[in-house]
Specification:
4-stranded mixed β-sheet; alpha+beta; 2 domains; 52% helix; Endonuclease, Chain A; Arc Repressor Mutant, subunit A; 232 residues; 11 helices
């Protein structure tokens, strides 16, 4: 996948985000669909001004991602990045702070605890930050991607799952298909296809096993080279 620079290309970014939101709505039901029918201006700004320029695409993202809170109540994350378990949200000052009730404030604290207890990294941004300091916001996202892996030249040309598997594998001497499914939260078939493609391109290589079955995997020479180049 070739990374595209969407900064300054408003029309193109707007059309991609609009198509993405419509696709999310078509796949949603119940309360999640109701959430997606509400005012999404903050989410649209987050996608258009921050996430699309950084990631180059919206593959792997989910809007109004549903999870169960610590009190058993369903809660929703505005924007969830599945491959790395990242939650992104954008709020304006007036509706989020000035008009917030005590009950709503307590509910928001519970949401943040749920993200933490579920192992998600939570990244909230204000609309003022995105308006006045967009580059600072992008640097923060680049930093978390760097801490989760070692982004190198050519990384953004990969499929999003290939990219994240390389970053996860960089900290493991060996990994198994089960590790891949756990790391990326994907099914058996998806993991098998991902591994086969990355073996063929020499991003990863097999470790042990037999002619019919691999025991495990490790980074291949091309994968190591890609991770070690530096830059993004």
């Amino acid at each position: 996948m070739v990374k595209r620079d969407f900064r300054g290309k408003t029309d193109r970014a707007d059309s991609i985000v609009a198509a993405f939101i419509e696709k999310q709505r078509r796949s949603a039901t119940g309360q999640r669909l109701e959430m997606l029918q509400r005012d999404l201006s903050g989410t649209i700004k987050l996608l258009t001004d921050l996430l699309l320029p950084v990631f180059g695409s919206l593959e792997g993202f989910h809007l109004e991602y549903e999870m169960i809170g610590t009190n058993g109540v369903k809660i929703y994350a505005d924007v969830y990045y599945e491959p790395l378990g990242l939650v992104f949200e954008c709020d304006g000052y007036v509706p989020h702070v000035e008009l917030m009730t005590r009950d709503r404030f307590s509910f928001e604290r519970m949401r943040v605890r749920t993200f933490a207890l579920s192992g998600y990294a939570y990244f909230p941004f204000s609309r003022d930050e995105l308006d006045k300091k967009p580059e600072m916001c992008r640097r923060a996202v680049y930093e978390v991607l760097g801490r989760r892996g070692r982004g190198g030249v050519g990384m953004m040309e990969l499929d999003v799952y290939e990219r994240e598997l390389l970053r996860m594998a960089a900290d493991s001497k060996m990994f198994t298909p089960k590790d891949v499914r756990t790391w990326l939260n994907i099914g058996h078939r998806k993991a098998r296809g991902l591994i086969a493609g990355m073996k063929q391109s020499q991003l990863i290589t097999r470790v042990g096993g037999s002619d019919r079955r691999d025991f495990g995997y490790m980074l291949g020479e091309k994968g190591k080279e890609m991770l070690s180049r530096g830059g993004s």
